Amino acid sequence: MVKDITGKVILNNNVGNNIFLLCLEAEEVEEVYPGQFAMLSVGDEYDPFLRRPMSIFKRDKNRYYFLYQVVGRGTHLLSKKRNKEEIKVLLPLGNSFPNLNKKENVLVVGGGVGIAPLNFLVDYYKDQVNFYTFIGFSSFVSEEVYLDLKKYSREFVISSEDGSIGYKGKILDFIPKDLNTFDKIISCGPSQMLKLLVKRVEDKDRVYLSLEERMGCGFGICLSCAIKSKDKVLHVCKEGPVFCGTEVIWDE
Amino acid sequence: MVKDITGKVILNNNVGNNIFLLCLEAEEVEEVYPGQFAMLSVGDEYDPFLRRPMSIFKRDKNRYYFLYQVVGRGTHLLSKKRNKEEIKVLLPLGNSFPNLNKKENVLVVGGGVGIAPLNFLVDYYKDQVNFYTFIGFSSFVSEEVYLDLKKYSREFVISSEDGSIGYKGKILDFIPKDLNTFDKIISCGPSQMLKLLVKRVEDKDRVYLSLEERMGCGFGICLSCAIKSKDKVLHVCKEGPVFCGTEVIWDE
Amino acid sequence: MNNLEVRIGSLIFKNPILLASGTCGNGREINKFYDINGLGGFVTKSITLNPREGNPPPRIWESYAGILNSIGLENVGLQKFLEEEMPFLERLSTNVIVSIAGEKKEEYYEIARNLRGCKISGVELNLSCPNVEGGGMLFGIDKEMVKEITKKVVKEIGKPVWVKLTPQAKDIVEIVKAVKDAGGEAVVLFNTFLGLAIDWKKRKPVFKRIFAGYSGPAVKPLVLRYVWEVYEENLLPIVGCGGIVSFSDVLEYIFAGASLVQIGSANFRDPWIGERLVKEAFKYFEKERVMDLIGIAHKNYKEVEE
Amino acid sequence: MNNLEVRIGSLIFKNPILLASGTCGNGREINKFYDINGLGGFVTKSITLNPREGNPPPRIWESYAGILNSIGLENVGLQKFLEEEMPFLERLSTNVIVSIAGEKKEEYYEIARNLRGCKISGVELNLSCPNVEGGGMLFGIDKEMVKEITKKVVKEIGKPVWVKLTPQAKDIVEIVKAVKDAGGEAVVLFNTFLGLAIDWKKRKPVFKRIFAGYSGPAVKPLVLRYVWEVYEENLLPIVGCGGIVSFSDVLEYIFAGASLVQIGSANFRDPWIGERLVKEAFKYFEKERVMDLIGIAHKNYKEVEE
Ligand SMILES: Cc1cc2nc3c(=O)[nH]c(=O)nc-3n(C[C@H](O)[C@H](O)[C@H](O)COP(=O)(O)OP(=O)(O)OC[C@H]3O[C@@H](n4cnc5c(N)ncnc54)[C@H](O)[C@@H]3O)c2cc1C
Ligand SMILES: Cc1cc2nc3c(=O)[nH]c(=O)nc-3n(C[C@H](O)[C@H](O)[C@H](O)COP(=O)(O)OP(=O)(O)OC[C@H]3O[C@@H](n4cnc5c(N)ncnc54)[C@H](O)[C@@H]3O)c2cc1C
Ligand SMILES: Cc1cc2nc3c(=O)[nH]c(=O)nc-3n(C[C@H](O)[C@H](O)[C@H](O)COP(=O)(O)O)c2cc1C
Ligand SMILES: Cc1cc2nc3c(=O)[nH]c(=O)nc-3n(C[C@H](O)[C@H](O)[C@H](O)COP(=O)(O)O)c2cc1C
Ligand code: FES
Ligand code: FES
């Protein structure tokens, strides 16, 4: 059941260049799965008007974590929220990552704040699945951002474009050459990265991507978030945000 | 010089039925006089759009106090501000109360949050002037609201319509019968109260009133705050907010 | 009779709160949040004869206290609508108004014919589509066209017909007269306003079609002005729509002359808004009837001025 | 030549940032906050031949991200304006545009004659007043009237004449053509939109005159739409005005086709906004010229679409 919960800020730290880690304390909502997202209200008044979609970065009982980058007015307002301030959060929304089987080998590839849903995924399946995690940033991020991913992955590689953390370069330069050895490949990040990644995998049905599109509502009533699939229109908030590599087309 | 200072909330207490006492810490601005007001920005985004006019309740070096009542969206937002949050404040604006002479006998009459500018006045002249202060509220207010007025007045009377504090009734029922004994009469409050008060004074030029009108800017460029005087239009933010009893007409 | 009840034309609404077309799906999605039978009614997403994919992204863009949208009438088309949505809609116990759109006149009529037998309260004509036969001008800005389409749909459907006006029409009152002459039961004021946003980083229009539909709190005073003007003409009941986000907005519309209101963009921010407004209406109208207060501001204004 | 410089008609502006009529007094008040000579220019509060008291309170009301005003052209009248304001205005080293309003045609001409000898850059015709001779309709919605008044003022004044349009006109492009034919040098898009607010507690209109002028961020997408449309006609330089509160808004206007912009209501929130926008313009246009980017979104759009 989707709920509109009121979260109290208990942490809203700058953890990188314009990147923030937010933790909200609220009531415990049942059945929240990795890959799902929330719509965060950024203010009580009517400017800005819409809520902002954010992946769930981590969930710990009644605590919900979000990792976000300040890109515009809404995220700027979010970054100003202080402890004890309240934020309304509609969740859980969207589908989720596929169920992972015991002992599967899963390649996880994340770019920037796109690691948010991946973090939840790895945290969720940490005891059962073998994760090989590759994440890249444009510049420095502090350890809280990737601590879980590092701890719960068999292999963990981090890179940054300016070399300020991990290897220097884009993360796709560091992922394994042979992608056939993985049972599943799960990724989230800039669309350019996703596009290149999917290209490199032969069996597109082993790839799962979390996509973004501008959203009005987040629960299927406005039809803003449409993307074109092969033969039909898909809505990121309803049929997604997680799509199988076979569903997505990358022209334009 | 009018400045736009950024105040940090260091106190924002509920001190009565929908009444709040706000203290902002900011830079020290020169030459702020009793009767002047400020325009408080209630949010960084564009809804609500305008700032809100508020009388200065007290000024203590770099601390500015405001006493306000929650009546609409803007004051509601103000009441939600927590410690350390920032509020932009344009001040000082408007004229001020007339200079008071040493040992003058001054009658001060305040209704509701209209006591705000009167509090600053009494605090400012406390060592030199004999104040006879009469203030009324509709319901209970806590002591912080009238502490200064009580302390620095020769005579101090408080009333409330529901009797929950001081005498029960409207404050005009308790002011001295003979108003001719006072050198000046200074008042602020609901216009109905001001109207009745002015009626009872013979020499209208001994009465000074602080008036309100809806404001767009607070510094004379929008012409929203016009009130009709005998022969011309006056602007509350420029020629006021303090007007002499001779200037104001009360028809309509 | 309950105080919230509103009758317009041949329909009875248990309260004046409706949800607007294109902002509540086909009811099902909102019904997950609350029982939509508690509403006065709602209007389905506009359907067209054939399925439409809609416009390429971006389809939505935020402005100050308002949004611009360019959805492009994405919908499954009449056939699938009848198969997949109608059974749910027919089981509801509130007013369901089906919104119809088309690029050719004949499309409106064919849809109307197909809806004739359905258990729905009526239809709302969305005339804010470009008329492909008529050179791409909107149907809704041409009073002859409005009259012609409305008349024919009224005949074909045998149910109440509402016409949703576009604020782009040059003379709104003329259009309302046309609707009245053609047998429409009410006018809905308004569909979205034409607006533009420039992506200043890319230095080009945000939307592929340049202009987009502007809605949200920002448009409220503009729509209210026309509600007032149309009410003064005393032609047809008015359904007010534009920028409602709070109960005081609802009251402004009713007092200005709207018999019913539709909530649009606000559903995106708060899916429960419809239910909440109904609750507030119950409280506010405890001792007065909505029907007695429609347009009350006109009376009060005249009394003061005289 | 500095990158910010904009020439339109016979005038040179050191930058494209102006303040709008009625929102910056007569310059003096804003000059207390910063040196207004740093602006591209500003437009004085509209003056009328005779002094006007303006409307009774309330004169201003807030809506979502916008305001409604009903000031009623309060001003001291031509004579006092010439005596009390002109000496200050004539000493300024930026463009001063004097806004003229009237309820009769002859009033415009008489004011123009009186301004002929003054050291000002030009005048802006505020045609959003009801024409008392013509039955109370706005001058600005009638293209013949616009042409007639503009032509005569151009002749009387011998200085650049701008015409400020009202969005209430039914065909904006027609009005721009009329201004061009009459010898106007630019059009200003727009004066305020007609809007309504109801005081729901009192159950009547907020304003004595029922309708009021709507401005602020809420109107921006509506005005931008017309800036785009008028620019496409390639008739006259456009001065954009409506809802500008940030530098990205300024860019949206310039890219959509405005040569200059005017800042209105935003001055009320932040008296320093003009100075701040000029500073941001200096930074943004370090390597490019404003003049080369006016209307650039049209070019970029066409390139993508072809
Ligand atoms: C399912 C989903 C999950 C997301 N998860 C995260 C996350 O975990 N961390 C994170 O930093 N970002 C995430 N995003 C992107 C994030 O929603 C946008 O960066 C954010 O909405 C920008 O808001 P703004 O007000 O700062 O930007 P503005 O550009 O001012 O926003 C204006 C409008 O555009 C929308 N918008 C702008 N950019 C995007 C975008 N990339 N995607 C969707 N809507 C956008 C906003 O929601 C808003 O409605 C996610 C997006 C989606 C769709
Ligand atoms: C010079 C001056 C000094 C004031 N000092 C105080 C004070 O010390 N304490 C206090 O509680 N109130 C004071 N007021 C009144 C206070 O400004 C309003 O109560 C407040 O602006 C209401 O804002 P809102 O958003 O809550 O109400 P809303 O009704 O939502 O406000 C909508 C708009 O109307 C304006 N407005 C509403 N009521 C008033 C009003 N009475 N006067 C002026 N503008 C109004 C608002 O500023 C805003 O622009 C003063 C007013 C003036 C003019
Ligand atoms: C995303 C979106 C989609 C819409 N789709 C339709 C539609 O299909 N048919 C229609 O008649 N109106 C449509 N509208 C217009 C709304 O029904 C409504 O008239 C308008 O948004 C004004 O109301 P609001 O300000 O409350 O949103 C749509 C509006 C939005 C924002
Ligand atoms: C309080 C107020 C007074 C105004 N007075 C005038 C005026 O005297 N003459 C005029 O041409 N426009 C006047 N305007 C309109 C503005 O100049 C401007 O066109 C309009 O407000 C839109 O710009 P904005 O959205 O930036 O405010 C006034 C606007 C406001 C808000
Ligand atoms: S965001 Fe509204 S339908 Fe997907
Ligand atoms: S409030 Fe703007 S002139 Fe007084």
TrEMBL record, chains A, B:
Q: Name one GO molecular function term.
A: 2 iron, 2 sulfur cluster binding
Q: Which residue intervals define the domain Dihydroorotate dehydrogenase electron transfer subunit iron-sulphur cluster binding in the entry?
A: 212-248
Q: Name the GO terms of the biological process aspect.
A: pyrimidine nucleotide biosynthetic process
Task: Tell me the InterPro entries matching this sequence.
Answer: Cyt_c3_hydrogenase_gsu (IPR012165), Dihydroorotate_DH_ele_sf (IPR037117), Dihydroorotate_DH_Fe-S-bd (IPR019480), FNR_nucleotide-bd (IPR039261), PyrK_electron_transfer (IPR050353), Riboflavin_synthase-like_b-brl (IPR017938)
Per its UniProt record, the required cofactor names are: FAD; [2Fe-2S] cluster
Q: What SUPFAM superfamilies does the record point to? A: Ferredoxin reductase-like, C-terminal NADP-linked domain, Riboflavin synthase domain-like
Q: Supply the alphabetized keyword list.
A: 2Fe-2S, Electron transport, FAD, Flavoprotein, Iron, Iron-sulfur, Metal-binding, Transport
Domain of life of the source: Bacteria
* Positions annotated to bind FAD: 52-55, 67-69, 74-75
The UniProt entry, under Pfam families, shows: DHODB_Fe-S_bind
Q: Which residues bind [2Fe-2S] cluster?
A: 217, 222, 225, 237
Record note on cofactor: Binds 1 FAD per subunit. Binds 1 [2Fe-2S] cluster per subunit.
Under PANTHER family, the record lists:
DIHYDROOROTATE DEHYDROGENASE B (NAD(+)), ELECTRON TRANSFER SUBUNIT (PTHR43513), DIHYDROOROTATE DEHYDROGENASE B (NAD(+)), ELECTRON TRANSFER SUBUNIT-RELATED (PTHR43513:SF3)
Q: Which family does it belong to?
A: Belongs to the PyrK family.
Recorded protein name is Dihydroorotate dehydrogenase electron transfer subunit
From TrEMBL, chains C, D:
UniProt-listed SUPFAM superfamilies: FMN-linked oxidoreductases
| GO CC term (a single one) | cytoplasm
- Record-linked Gene3D superfamilies: Aldolase class I
Free-text comment on the cofactor: Binds 1 FMN per subunit.
Which Gene Ontology BP annotations are present? 'de novo' pyrimidine nucleobase biosynthetic process; 'de novo' UMP biosynthetic process
**Keyword Flavoprotein recorded:** yes
InterPro entries, alphabetized: Aldolase_TIM (IPR013785), DHO_dehydrogenase (IPR050074), DHOD_1B (IPR033888), Dihydroorotate_DH_1 (IPR024920), Dihydroorotate_DH_1_2 (IPR012135), Dihydroorotate_DH_cat (IPR005720), Dihydroorotate_DH_CS (IPR001295), Dihydroorotate_DH_I (IPR049622)
User: What's the domain of life for this entry?
Assistant: Bacteria
Looking at the keywords, is Amino-acid biosynthesis present?
A: no
Quote the subcellular location field of this record.
Answer: Cytoplasm
> Which positions are annotated as binding substrate?
45, 69-73, 126, 191-192
Question: What function is annotated for this protein?
Answer: Catalyzes the conversion of dihydroorotate to orotate.
Task: Give the protein family.
Answer: Belongs to the dihydroorotate dehydrogenase family. Type 1 subfamily.
What is this protein called in UniProt?
Answer: Dihydroorotate dehydrogenase
Question: What organism, scientifically named, is this protein from?
Answer: Dictyoglomus thermophilum (strain ATCC 35947 / DSM 3960 / H-6-12)
